[in-house]
Amino acid sequence: MKKILLSLFFMALINGFISAQDLKLTKDKVVIDNKEVFKYEKQSFVEYSLFDLKNDEVLNLQFKDNGTAYESDDYMVFNFVGIGVKFSSTNFEKIAGLGSKSMMKNLIQWLLKEKVFSNDGNLDKDKLEIFINKYEM
Fold first, then answer.
1. N or C: at which end does the chain have fewer Cβ atoms within 10 angstroms?
2. Average pLDDT score over residue span 63-74
3. Quick one: pLDDT band at residue 122, thresholds 50, 70, 90?
4. How far from the centroid of its chain's Cα atoms is residue 119's Cα?
């Protein structure tokens, strides 16, 4: 277990260093290249939301533990609320971080890297489809 956590921590560090965008998270805002693009909110210990600047929910992310003590059957549910697209993934290493702010930053960096969102916060449905094909469980 310690090896897994340590590996996830180092992956999160490396992921943070190779980001092409200047991405900052303030108290509840996401700033990309010095422009406020999104707002984010921790709904609960296992649920997070990303909002556009009109306060419309863009993405809801939920962590599911499948009711067992095994980590190998845990998964995440991505719900792109505005367009009605929902899928599940087990790629926790892509967003691993210490604390919810770090995890949200890694999630947003991942979505930007995969071009699901542009630096202006626009969703690319074609890139989302590719993202789902790559990471859906």
1. N
2. 76
3. very high
4. 15
* Average of per-residue pLDDT across 40-58: 93
Which of 102, 88, 91, 74 is closest to 9 using CA atoms?
A: 102
Q: Quick one: tokens of 44?
A: 């609960």
For the beta carbon of residue 84, count every other beta carbon within 10 angstroms.
7
Beta bridge partners of 79: 60, 86
pTM of the model: 0.79
Contact 23, 30 (CB under 8 A): yes
Domain boundaries of the chain, sorted by first residue: 2-135
DSSP 95: T
Alpha helices in 44-118 (DSSP H): 100-113
Residue 104 dihedral angles phi and psi, to the nearest 5° = -65, -40
* CA separation for the pair 63, 79 (Å, rounded): 12
